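Retry 2 of 3 after timeout on previous attempt. Resubmitting structure tokens to design endpoint.
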């Protein structure tokens, strides 16, 4: 074993007093931080300037479990298959888009796509728009809310003669809030499966 040419330094050996001082310093920092006011930390910085809205308190998105959907399900319940949230109308409050169908014991029940919002007064969530009505006999496969738009891939039928088991048309669709309504944008080029 080779010995160091430098003599042992007193500060390189931790003694119990060093650990006690370190623990006391950490406890002091933690105690002091609990006394300071906390604010919401975000990675994005917003600047209030001309043409920008001041940041509003983040509201909770509407909960689909608290809504009665306009579905006729008979003895079975309505089931929320998918949901996504985002600010669709630019008011600073999130909306929820829900893909819902009846919980049928067999088969593939058609989906409905509904937009939910909460009133400015904090009232409970409610359905404000139906983007896909279950009577259209569509099944939603791809689904997202991105950049203020609702995107979906819909499976459907080219005619009433096509059996419910075997949709033969695929349609990629997009809805965006414009002039007080959700507008389905082109292209809505249906493809056969």
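Retry 2 succeeded. Sequence:
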């Amino acid at each position: 074993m080779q010995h160091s040419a430098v003599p042992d330094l007193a500060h390189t050996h931790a003694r119990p007093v060093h650990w006690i001082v370190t623990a006391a310093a950490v406890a002091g920092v933690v105690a002091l931080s609990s006394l300071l006011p906390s604010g919401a930390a975000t990675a994005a910085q917003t600047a209030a300037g001309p043409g920008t809205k001041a940041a509003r308190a983040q509201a909770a998105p509407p909960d689909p479990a608290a809504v009665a959907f306009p579905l006729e399900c008979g003895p079975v319940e309505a089931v929320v298959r998918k949901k996504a949230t985002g600010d669709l109308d630019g008011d600073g409050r999130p909306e929820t888009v829900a893909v819902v169908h009846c919980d049928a014991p067999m088969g593939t029940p058609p989906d409905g796509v509904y937009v939910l919002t909460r009133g400015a007064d904090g009232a409970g969530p409610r359905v404000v728009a139906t983007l896909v009505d279950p009577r259209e006999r569509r099944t939603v496969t791809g689904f997202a809310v991105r950049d203020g738009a609702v995107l979906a891939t819909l499976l459907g039928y080219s005619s009433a003669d096509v059996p419910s088991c075997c949709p033969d048309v695929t349609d990629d669709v997009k809805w965006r809030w414009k002039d007080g309504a959700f507008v389905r944008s082109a292209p809505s080029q249906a493809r056969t499966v």
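Attempt log closed. The chain has one helix and nine strands.
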